[in-house]
Amino acid sequence: MRIPAHSVCTAIRDDIVAGVYERGGRLTEELLARRYGVSRVPVREALRTLEAEGFVVTRRHAGACVAEPTEQEAADLLEMRTLLEPLGAARAAQRRTEAHLKVLRGLVRLGQERARRGNSDDLRSLGGWFHETLAQASGSPALTSMLTQLRHKIAWMYTVEAPAGPVESWTEHGAIVDAVARGDSERARAVTALHAERATGAHRLRFGSAGERAERVRNSQHPVNTASLRH
Questions:
Q1: Which PANTHER family does the record match to this protein (predicted)?
Q2: How far lies 191's CA from each of 58, 90, 124, 177, in Å?
């Protein structure tokens, strides 16, 4: 069975984001194929995709290596997000479906409930699902793809502190959904811009030690999950 390159790409990207691979470190096809339990063909295709996304660079005499973004490049990503997320929300107000609204409202209810209870363990994942759904509601595959890549890169380059006011943060999520539901593009844009600006202040650049990276490697030895590919 040939494993699709996109599954291998997702696995490698997730490990890069998690810090399993050191920035600047080599990514050899043979070792990656062995690690994920696949042939070298999907690994080669995955590395090409990751290079196009900016996670991998090809260096003379070294081959594929994990990219080493600068602090300025990292800062640019946060600025790009503050510009694109409000645009996505404005488009969502014009193009969202009832299915999108149902999911968004459900996420807001869950987020507000968890925030009131002080249960912050899953607030970050709920927030990620919220913004992913909001991007999809924009009806623009290109914009959705760009926002998805931004989220992956930001997660790679930054740690995010728990919000000082999670209840307020999820109140803002609710205000975004209200504006999207009313079809109010300008309101959706404005509220999302304020929310994105507030969230930017919670981001801190990652500076992991070699020991921490080694621990992540030990805890992340897994093949590509192919169970869903057999059906």
A1: GLUCONATE OPERON TRANSCRIPTIONAL REPRESSOR, TRANSCRIPTIONAL REGULATOR, GNTR FAMILY
A2: 40, 10, 19, 10
Going along the chain, which residue ranges are E strands?
A: 56-59, 63-66, 158-160, 203-205
Same domain, 145 and 88: yes
Residue-wise pLDDT tens digits, 22-52: 999 999 999 999 999 999 999 999 999 999 9
Residues 6+ apart with CB under 8 A from 175: 191
Task: Return the closest-CA partner of residue 62 out of 47, 74, 73.
Answer: 47
Q: 138 and 42 share a domain?
A: no
What pLDDT, on a 0 to 100 scale, did the predictor assign at position 228? 39
Question: Measured between alpha carbons, how far is 191 from 195 in angstroms, rounded to an integer?
Answer: 6
- Strand-pair partners of 229: none
Average confidence (pLDDT) over 188-192: 97
Instruction: For residue 152, give its domain range.
Output: 71-205
* CATH number assigned to the domain comprising residue 151: 1.20.120.530
Q: What is the pLDDT at residue 113?
A: 92
- Based on the fold, state whether residues 101 and 61 are members of the same structural domain: no
**Across the strands, what pairs with 56?**
66
